[in-house]
Specification:
single chain, TIFA inhibitor, 1 helix, 7-stranded mixed sheet, 5-stranded mixed sheet, Tumour Suppressor Smad4, 2% helix, TIFA, SMAD_FHA_dom_sf, FHA_dom
Length: 161
């Protein structure tokens, strides 16, 4: 039996505020196929009162891939100052990335994991929210390092050579 709605199973975690950061989040939210806005402003569908969060910080945007009859999603960064990381990729203002089946997202100290379950409806999707008591992502942001430069080069043994 086919699922009528695409379901986004969203787990949320905040390291200092815990579940209190998400008191305004309903356990279930059905949404039409317009972008789902996340931020602290009045127009956001998911409102979070967090420091460093923009009024419109990011959006989950449904779309139809060419040749498909199922909704796909991308995440778009809407914040000019805040950072959004998706699966280790840092997005800047208006950059977007398609979502896969499992996605690790971080922004404003929020850790969010989105599991995408495809459904047949092209008119709406459903989000189920779970508040996690423990971290969801252990390296929440992409880190650029020069570790390879600091690795000592192996020296040939003395007397060989």
């Amino acid at each position: 039996m086919e699922k009528p709605f695409t379901v986004l199973r969203v787990s949320l975690y905040h390291p200092t505020l815990g579940p209190a950061a998400f008191t305004s989040i309903p356990p279930r939210l059905q949404h039409d196929i317009n972008p789902l806005l996340i931020g602290r402003g009045q127009g956001a569908h998911l409102r979070l009162q967090l420091p460093n969060l923009s009024r419109r910080h990011l959006s989950l945007e449904p779309y139809l891939e060419a040749g498909s009859t199922l909704l796909a999603f991308c995440l778009k960064s809407l914040s000019r100052k805040g950072c959004v990381c998706v699966n280790g990729l840092k997005l800047t203002y208006l950059e977007q990335v398609p979502l896969s089946t499992v996605n690790k997202i971080s922004f404003s100290n929020v850790q969010m994991v989105v599991h995408l379950e495809k459904g047949t409806s092209l008119e709406a999707f459903v989000c189920h929210f779970h508040l996690s008591p423990s971290p969801l992502i252990y390296r929440p942001e992409a880190e650029e390092t020069d570790d390879w430069e600091s690795i000592p080069q192996e020296q040939p043994p003395l007397g060989s050579g």
